[in-house]
Amino acid sequence: MSMKKINSLLIGLILSVGALFTCFPIYMAVVNSFKTQGEMFASFVALPTKLHFENYTQAFEKIHLLNSSMNSVIVSVLGIGGIVFCSALAGYKLSRTRGKLSNFIFLLFVASMLVPFHSIMIPLTRMAKTMQVQGSTYGLALIYIGLGVNMAIFLYHGFVKSIPRELEESGQIDGCNEFQTFFRIILPLLLPITVTIAILDFLWIWNDFLLPLMMLTDVDNYTLILSTNMLFGEYNKEWSLILASLVLTAIPVVVIYGFFQRFIMEGIAEGAVKG
């Protein structure tokens, strides 16, 4: 056997073991979501003797799935929409404007990506309270926009450089001003990186726990993750319901990521490498 085949088999074995370790917690969550509490404590890895779908019906009611899902959708849609709109304009303008000021502003956005969230969460909470946006799903979406534009601008900035300037010059010759040139010519060409940014931000916002916990004070405004956290009592933890709730919460993320996985990888590569 050639050395190339041996290396290929070795890499495949390592990746298979890594995939097994990655998928095992998912297996445990799905399998145990169909068990009773007694079956779970008897064996976490064994298959259930009977599929208890009532865990999902009870979880559906206890976490107020429809209301919580709507809150998560509102926050995700507004947050992603704001990030894409602001970042596309800023990334385009910074990429096409030459000068020290433009480079400095871009570097500020890039440098902000290195700041840990935990170092700003207390000032952020106080500022949100002062601006009277704490406790609102719309205020939470506004904060997500502010926290998410730096990465999006970085990706847009690199992607715009791959678009020939001749296209903009042609639009200007036809009578388009700068905004018309952007929305009619440039923005449609940004679709690959826009899809990537939208999906990555959706995964972030949908699964985020800490920021909604800090900002949302009314149970009626809770996102899915926060509603699931309510099942963790001080003296009682209904693990079967908790796992069923987590599975329900993860389904939209898994479906969207699986469907758009190719666009994510291509968009990141094009947006980062071309920059």
Can you offer a commentary on this structure?
The chain crosses the membrane at residues 73-92, 104-125, 137-160, 181-206, 239-260. The structure is a single chain. Helix content is 76%, strand content 0%. It has 13 helices and no strands. The chain has two domains: 3-51, no CATH class; 56-273, Orthogonal Bundle (MetI-like fold). It is mainly alpha-helical. The protein is globular.
* % residues in beta strands: under 5%
Main β-sheet: number of strands, strand sense, barrel status? none
- In terms of structural class, how would the helical and strand content be classed? mainly alpha
Radius of gyration: 23 Å
Order of helices and strands: HHHHHHHHHHHHH
Q: Give me the CATH superfamily of the largest domain.
A: MetI-like
Shape: globular
**What percentage of residues falls in helices of 4 or more residues?**
over 70%
**What distance lies between the first and last C-alpha atoms, to the nearest angstrom?**
42 Å
Number of helices: 13
Count of discrete domains: 2
Mean pLDDT over the residues:
86
CATH fold field value of the largest domain:
MetI-like fold
DSSP strand tally = 0
Task: Give the gist of this structure.
With 275 residues, this protein is mainly alpha-helical. The chain is built from 13 helices and no strands. The protein has two domains: 3-51, no CATH class; 56-273, MetI-like fold, CATH 1.10.3720.10.
